[in-house]
Amino acid sequence: MTKALEGRIALITGASRGIGRAVALRFAQEGAHVILVARTIAALEEVDDEIQALGGSATLVPMNLREFDKIDQMGQALYDRFGKIDIVVGNAGFLGDLTPMAHLKVKMWNEVMDVNVTANWRLIRSMEPLLKQSDAGRAIFLSSGTTKAPRAYWAAYAVSKAALENMVQTWALELGKTNIKANLIDPGATRTRMRAQAYPGENPETLKEPEALTDLFVELASPSYDKSGEIVRYN
Known about the structure:
about 240 residues, Rossmann fold, alpha/beta, 7 helices
């Protein structure tokens, strides 16, 4: 039986836990070679062990995405090794402090914007040439329900996700009739570490597991998916 992503090369940021880990495992099951990006090598190695147990293959890239020049270096290294990238999943994100806007520390604002906006712009900038070498380049970024309407105290996180949506949709328009499709997924309430930080009193047993999202990621990563500039919300 043919696997949905057989022979594809997929880069996933924030791949060591939560949604990123679940997507990495599912993509590997579907036949993709996965390039896993996260800060901690030990956590990446754990995911790699799981992938190997499934019969899949992975390349590990321990990296702090705030070290922006390393994103460019990674792009060059991936071109030298693979010559292309078929799928990019910009999953890494940072919640920051939930506090009144005027009380947010400058350092915290900068870190949220660095991870959620600037790192993804650098990723777009570095990976677009590799995606163009694919017969069907697919880029997927993680949005948030906080963009639907303003929420008090969500400060930098909500602003960063609104900026990310606009950035990806602008890029999608610019891609025009190229072979690249760029979209966003709003995962909704999901059992992740970030969700627990944002809602510490919430019972995690009431939330879906990250694995529930992977069908949607496979759909948007597949060569047959022909929409671009969409914000797809998990139902």
